[in-house]
Amino acid sequence: MLANVNLINCFLIVMGMAVFYLFVLIPVLIYYAIQHMRSPKLILLPDAEWDEYYEKKCQVESDWAESNQFIQVGVYRLQQNFILVWQDVENATYFQVTLSPYGWFHSFTTVFDEDYSLITANDRESLVFPAPPKRFVQSFGIESLDDLHEKHEETLAALVRVKHLELPEHLPGFEEAYLSIVRQQHEHVRSVSFYPIRGIWWYHISRRAKFNQPLDLQQAVLEH
To answer: I need a labelling partner for 136 at 20 to 30 A (CA). Which of 129, 160, 165, 196 fits?
Structure first.
Protein backbone atom coordinates (compact mmCIF):
# COMPACT_ATOMS: atom_id res chain seq x y z
CA MET A 1 0.00 0.00 0.00
CA LEU A 2 2.81 2.39 0.95
CA ALA A 3 4.61 1.57 -2.29
CA ASN A 4 1.50 2.49 -4.28
CA VAL A 5 1.18 5.79 -2.43
CA ASN A 6 4.81 6.62 -3.14
CA LEU A 7 4.36 5.74 -6.82
CA ILE A 8 1.31 7.99 -7.07
CA ASN A 9 3.17 10.83 -5.34
CA CYS A 10 6.09 10.48 -7.75
CA PHE A 11 3.71 10.49 -10.69
CA LEU A 12 1.99 13.65 -9.42
CA ILE A 13 5.34 15.37 -8.89
CA VAL A 14 6.49 14.52 -12.42
CA MET A 15 3.19 15.69 -13.88
CA GLY A 16 3.37 18.89 -11.84
CA MET A 17 6.89 19.57 -13.12
CA ALA A 18 5.79 18.93 -16.70
CA VAL A 19 2.83 21.31 -16.37
CA PHE A 20 5.08 23.96 -14.78
CA TYR A 21 7.62 23.61 -17.59
CA LEU A 22 5.04 23.76 -20.37
CA PHE A 23 2.62 26.38 -19.09
CA VAL A 24 4.71 28.54 -16.76
CA LEU A 25 8.43 28.36 -17.49
CA ILE A 26 8.28 28.49 -21.31
CA PRO A 27 5.90 31.50 -21.46
CA VAL A 28 8.07 33.33 -18.91
CA LEU A 29 11.23 32.62 -20.91
CA ILE A 30 9.53 33.72 -24.14
CA TYR A 31 8.38 36.94 -22.47
CA TYR A 32 11.84 37.85 -21.18
CA ALA A 33 13.51 36.89 -24.45
CA ILE A 34 11.27 39.36 -26.27
CA GLN A 35 11.88 42.03 -23.62
CA HIS A 36 15.63 41.73 -24.21
CA MET A 37 15.03 42.39 -27.91
CA ARG A 38 13.51 45.78 -27.17
CA SER A 39 16.87 47.51 -26.76
CA PRO A 40 19.65 45.07 -27.74
CA LYS A 41 23.22 46.14 -27.08
CA LEU A 42 25.79 44.89 -29.54
CA ILE A 43 29.31 45.64 -28.26
CA LEU A 44 32.25 45.57 -30.68
CA LEU A 45 35.35 44.13 -29.03
CA PRO A 46 38.66 45.99 -29.42
CA ASP A 47 40.72 44.97 -32.47
CA ALA A 48 43.44 43.61 -30.20
CA GLU A 49 41.06 40.87 -28.97
CA TRP A 50 39.93 39.66 -32.40
CA ASP A 51 42.78 37.21 -32.95
CA GLU A 52 41.76 35.28 -29.84
CA TYR A 53 38.50 34.41 -31.62
CA TYR A 54 39.33 34.50 -35.33
CA GLU A 55 42.69 32.73 -35.18
CA LYS A 56 42.42 30.53 -32.10
CA LYS A 57 38.82 29.63 -31.26
CA CYS A 58 37.43 29.66 -34.80
CA GLN A 59 40.35 28.83 -37.05
CA VAL A 60 38.26 26.44 -39.17
CA GLU A 61 35.63 29.11 -39.83
CA SER A 62 38.31 31.72 -40.53
CA ASP A 63 39.99 29.46 -43.09
CA TRP A 64 36.65 28.77 -44.77
CA ALA A 65 35.77 32.47 -44.86
CA GLU A 66 39.11 33.41 -46.39
CA SER A 67 38.85 30.74 -49.08
CA ASN A 68 35.34 31.94 -49.98
CA GLN A 69 36.18 35.66 -50.23
CA PHE A 70 34.55 36.67 -46.94
CA ILE A 71 36.48 39.37 -45.07
CA GLN A 72 36.57 40.01 -41.33
CA VAL A 73 34.15 42.56 -39.90
CA GLY A 74 34.67 42.19 -36.16
CA VAL A 75 33.83 40.32 -32.99
CA TYR A 76 30.78 41.43 -31.06
CA ARG A 77 29.34 40.65 -27.67
CA LEU A 78 25.59 40.32 -27.15
CA GLN A 79 24.72 39.46 -23.56
CA GLN A 80 26.46 36.10 -22.95
CA ASN A 81 27.14 35.46 -26.63
CA PHE A 82 30.10 36.33 -28.81
CA ILE A 83 29.45 36.83 -32.53
CA LEU A 84 32.23 36.61 -35.11
CA VAL A 85 31.33 38.27 -38.38
CA TRP A 86 32.65 38.14 -41.94
CA GLN A 87 31.13 39.79 -45.00
CA ASP A 88 30.87 39.17 -48.72
CA VAL A 89 30.31 42.68 -50.02
CA GLU A 90 29.61 41.57 -53.58
CA ASN A 91 26.60 39.45 -52.52
CA ALA A 92 25.50 41.59 -49.55
CA THR A 93 25.93 38.59 -47.28
CA TYR A 94 27.23 38.24 -43.73
CA PHE A 95 28.65 35.02 -42.33
CA GLN A 96 28.31 34.69 -38.54
CA VAL A 97 29.55 32.30 -35.89
CA THR A 98 27.75 32.66 -32.57
CA LEU A 99 29.54 31.33 -29.51
CA SER A 100 26.98 30.84 -26.77
CA PRO A 101 26.93 28.92 -23.47
CA TYR A 102 24.72 26.36 -25.27
CA GLY A 103 26.94 25.72 -28.27
CA TRP A 104 28.39 27.20 -31.46
CA PHE A 105 26.07 28.12 -34.32
CA HIS A 106 26.62 29.30 -37.88
CA SER A 107 24.43 31.46 -40.08
CA PHE A 108 24.41 33.41 -43.32
CA THR A 109 22.41 36.62 -43.68
CA THR A 110 21.77 38.38 -46.97
CA VAL A 111 20.17 41.81 -46.94
CA PHE A 112 18.11 43.18 -49.81
CA ASP A 113 16.66 46.54 -50.68
CA GLU A 114 13.46 47.61 -48.89
CA ASP A 115 14.43 45.84 -45.61
CA TYR A 116 14.09 42.29 -46.95
CA SER A 117 16.52 39.69 -45.61
CA LEU A 118 17.26 35.98 -45.82
CA ILE A 119 18.80 34.02 -42.93
CA THR A 120 20.07 30.46 -43.21
CA ALA A 121 21.26 28.96 -39.93
CA ASN A 122 22.02 25.61 -38.34
CA ASP A 123 20.27 25.96 -34.98
CA ARG A 124 16.62 25.44 -34.04
CA GLU A 125 16.49 28.55 -31.88
CA SER A 126 16.48 30.74 -34.97
CA LEU A 127 13.05 29.26 -35.77
CA VAL A 128 11.40 29.78 -32.38
CA PHE A 129 9.61 33.01 -33.29
CA PRO A 130 7.43 33.57 -36.37
CA ALA A 131 9.34 35.56 -38.96
CA PRO A 132 8.20 39.17 -39.41
CA PRO A 133 7.21 40.53 -42.82
CA LYS A 134 10.10 40.83 -45.30
CA ARG A 135 12.26 38.38 -43.34
CA PHE A 136 12.88 34.83 -44.56
CA VAL A 137 14.40 32.28 -42.17
CA GLN A 138 15.41 28.66 -42.65
CA SER A 139 17.58 26.34 -40.57
CA PHE A 140 19.19 22.96 -41.12
CA GLY A 141 21.13 20.53 -38.96
CA ILE A 142 24.18 20.97 -41.17
CA GLU A 143 27.71 21.19 -39.78
CA SER A 144 29.48 21.58 -43.14
CA LEU A 145 29.91 25.26 -43.96
CA ASP A 146 30.06 24.47 -47.67
CA ASP A 147 26.70 22.69 -47.51
CA LEU A 148 25.07 25.39 -45.36
CA HIS A 149 26.34 28.10 -47.68
CA GLU A 150 25.05 26.16 -50.68
CA LYS A 151 21.58 25.96 -49.10
CA HIS A 152 21.67 29.71 -48.56
CA GLU A 153 22.77 30.44 -52.10
CA GLU A 154 20.08 28.20 -53.60
CA THR A 155 17.32 29.95 -51.66
CA LEU A 156 18.85 33.35 -52.37
CA ALA A 157 18.74 32.72 -56.11
CA ALA A 158 15.16 31.45 -55.87
CA LEU A 159 14.00 34.50 -53.91
CA VAL A 160 15.59 36.88 -56.37
CA ARG A 161 13.88 35.02 -59.21
CA VAL A 162 10.44 34.68 -57.62
CA LYS A 163 10.19 37.85 -55.52
CA HIS A 164 12.34 40.00 -57.81
CA LEU A 165 14.35 41.18 -54.82
CA GLU A 166 17.39 43.35 -55.44
CA LEU A 167 20.65 43.51 -53.54
CA PRO A 168 21.62 46.95 -52.19
CA GLU A 169 24.30 48.98 -53.90
CA HIS A 170 26.04 49.42 -50.55
CA LEU A 171 26.02 46.75 -47.84
CA PRO A 172 24.78 48.29 -44.57
CA GLY A 173 27.04 48.01 -41.54
CA PHE A 174 26.67 44.75 -39.65
CA GLU A 175 25.52 46.41 -36.44
CA GLU A 176 22.87 48.39 -38.30
CA ALA A 177 21.61 45.31 -40.17
CA TYR A 178 21.68 43.02 -37.13
CA LEU A 179 19.89 45.40 -34.76
CA SER A 180 17.30 46.18 -37.42
CA ILE A 181 16.49 42.47 -37.74
CA VAL A 182 16.26 42.08 -33.94
CA ARG A 183 13.92 45.06 -33.63
CA GLN A 184 11.75 43.78 -36.47
CA GLN A 185 11.45 40.47 -34.65
CA HIS A 186 10.59 42.19 -31.37
CA GLU A 187 7.86 44.33 -32.90
CA HIS A 188 6.35 41.42 -34.82
CA VAL A 189 6.12 39.07 -31.85
CA ARG A 190 4.76 41.83 -29.62
CA SER A 191 1.97 42.34 -32.16
CA VAL A 192 0.79 38.73 -31.67
CA SER A 193 -1.96 38.43 -29.06
CA PHE A 194 -0.99 36.35 -26.01
CA TYR A 195 2.46 35.78 -27.46
CA PRO A 196 3.97 34.26 -24.26
CA ILE A 197 1.25 31.57 -24.34
CA ARG A 198 1.59 31.10 -28.09
CA GLY A 199 5.28 30.58 -27.39
CA ILE A 200 4.45 27.12 -26.01
CA TRP A 201 3.49 26.05 -29.54
CA TRP A 202 6.32 27.95 -31.18
CA TYR A 203 8.97 26.40 -28.93
CA HIS A 204 7.80 22.80 -28.79
CA ILE A 205 6.11 22.28 -32.15
CA SER A 206 6.73 25.01 -34.71
CA ARG A 207 10.53 25.23 -34.53
CA ARG A 208 10.83 21.44 -34.80
CA ALA A 209 8.43 21.26 -37.74
CA LYS A 210 10.39 23.93 -39.65
CA PHE A 211 13.85 22.56 -38.87
CA ASN A 212 15.58 20.92 -41.85
CA GLN A 213 12.82 22.20 -44.12
CA PRO A 214 13.82 24.51 -46.99
CA LEU A 215 11.94 27.75 -47.32
CA ASP A 216 8.51 27.24 -48.86
CA LEU A 217 8.74 29.82 -51.62
CA GLN A 218 5.06 29.70 -52.52
CA GLN A 219 4.06 30.33 -48.90
CA ALA A 220 6.79 32.92 -48.52
CA VAL A 221 5.46 34.90 -51.46
CA LEU A 222 1.95 34.87 -50.01
CA GLU A 223 3.09 35.93 -46.52
CA HIS A 224 5.68 38.50 -47.53
So the answer is: 196
The total of other beta-carbon atoms located within 10 Å of residue 35's CB is 11
Q: Using CA atoms, how far apart are residues 86 and 166, in angstroms rounded to an integer?
A: 21
Predicted local distance difference test score (pLDDT) of residue 200: 87
pLDDT for residue 5 = 53
Which residue type occupies 85? V
Instruction: Determine the pLDDT at residue 135.
Output: 93
Sheet (strand 93-100) strand order: 43-44, 71-78, 81-88, 93-100, 103-111, 117-121, 135-139
Spans of the chain below 50 pLDDT: 2, 11-12, 16, 19-20
Predicted local distance difference test score (pLDDT) of residue 20: 47
Please state, in angstroms and rounded to a whole number, the distance separating the CA atoms of residues 51 and 49: 6
Distances (CA, A) of 127 to 8, 138, 140: 38, 7, 10
